[in-house]
Design goal:
Blueprint (H helix, E strand, L loop, with lengths): L3 H7 L8 H23 L10 E5 L5 E3 H16 L3 E6 L6 E2 L6 H4 L4 E9 L10 E9 L10 H4 L8 E7 L3 E6 L5 E6 L4 E6 L10 E3 L10 H11 L8 E2 L5 H11 L1 E5 L12 H14 L2 E4 L19 E5 H14 L1
Helix pairs in contact: 2-3, 6-9
Bound molecules: 6-O-phosphono-alpha-D-fructofuranose.
């Protein structure tokens, strides 16, 4: 079985940047995700790690202790590997400059810009539902000698050179794409190694699942409501199965493997949509398209949206092309 490192080396010809720097980047990601895997898997046993940190994060949400732990784990592992020059995190208001000028030998490689949701769906931690890390990577745009600027982070999703997630569920799986298909690696905790377990993931042809929080039905637009009823009617290969666990990584991972659409539209509580463009929607949209699917805000491709600010939100739809196009048609015709 290929390890993640062996797979990256085997496929180095498909990656336009230095393989060595990609291996170092993944070394950081693997280290942090293994530390989080360990804490998540025993969260119920230690009060130090579950529950709230007592901090209200920049999202105005009650930060969970594991959120903070995950944020710090990634920050430290990126800083120590000299391969990232700037980080934007859901848990930090501003981007974080990593200045490695003193480490000349790696300086030229430190071109990676990372945007990350260290632990998405963390409200599920205390009830043992799968949660995940979502990451998005770009090449620095500003002059290499300068520290990162906000423009380095506000790049369109179609400029990503790497995107992925780690799902902490019944097993811990790292799923990523560098633009050459979507591949999944399962952690063998007994040896602390990620092994290739899902080669070239593609949405199945059969559309099966729709994932949306129907508790917001009364406030959905007519187009969304029409699509929900379309999913439920007995016709063709419908009704679809409704599955929604309130954890984007968990819902998406199931949908990309079993064939389903995930929808988080505008709601009364989130008139701009709830999900964050830069470190939730762009990376998931990149994986969606690489797996033969489609990702939009109901009208425009997510990857073409010109970002304006670090934590901006967007309505988010991702899944098989047929299902997403059908929903876009209803939204276009019925509002
Ligand atoms: P709701 C988790 O907070 C999250 O950001 C996503 O992981 C998840 O899909 C969504 O919000 C759930 O939101 O409003 O349905 O509870």
């Amino acid at each position: 079985m290929y390890t993640l490192g062996e797979f990256i080396i085997e496929n180095r010809d498909y990656f336009s940047y230095s393989t060595e720097s990609l291996l170092r980047l993944f070394s950081s990601i693997k280290l942090a995700s293994k530390a989080i895997h360990k804490e998540v898997n025993k969260a119920g046993l230690t009060t130090e790690i579950i529950g709230s940190s007592g901090v209200i994060n920049i999202q105005g949400e009650n930060q969970k202790k594991l959120d903070d732990f995950a944020h710090r784990a990634f920050l430290e592992s990126f800083k120590n590997r000299n391969v990232v020059c700037g980080i934007a995190s859901e848990e930090a208001k501003d981007f974080i400059v990593i200045n490695n000028k003193d480490k000349k030998e790696n300086f030229l490689q430190n071109q990676y810009i990372v945007l990350i949701d260290p632990l998405d769906g963390s409200s599920n931690i205390d009830v043992n539902v799968s949660i995940g890390t979502i990451f998005s990577v770009y090449i620095k745009k500003s002059p290499i000698q300068m520290d990162v600027t906000i423009e380095d982070f506000l790049q369109q999703g179609n400029k990503q050179i790497l995107a992925g997630y780690i799902i902490y569920g019944s097993s811990t799986i790292l799923v990523y794409s560098t633009g050459n298909g979507v591949h999944g690696f399962t952690l063998d905790p007994s040896v602390g190694t990620f092994y290739l377990s899902h080669y070239n993931i593609h949405f199945p042809v059969k559309e099966k699942i729709y994932s949306i929080n129907e508790g917001n039905y009364a406030k959905f637009s007519n187009g969304i409501r029409k699509f929900i009823r379309y999913c439920q009617e007995k016709k063709d290969n419908r009704p679809y199965t409704a599955r929604y666990i309130g954890s984007l990584v968990g819902d998406f991972h199931r949908n990309i493997i079993q064939g389903g659409i995930y929808i988080y539209p505008k709601t009364a509580s989130y008139p701009e949509g709830k999900l964050r463009l830069l470190y939730e929607c762009n990376p998931i949209a990149f994986l969606t398209e690489q797996a033969g699917g489609k990702a939009s805000d109901g009208k425009n491709s997510i990857l073409d949206i010109e970002p304006k600010e670090l934590h901006q939100r967007t309505p988010f739809i991702c899944g098989p092309i047929g299902m997403v196009s059908q929903l876009e048609k209803f939204m276009n015709n019925f509002g």
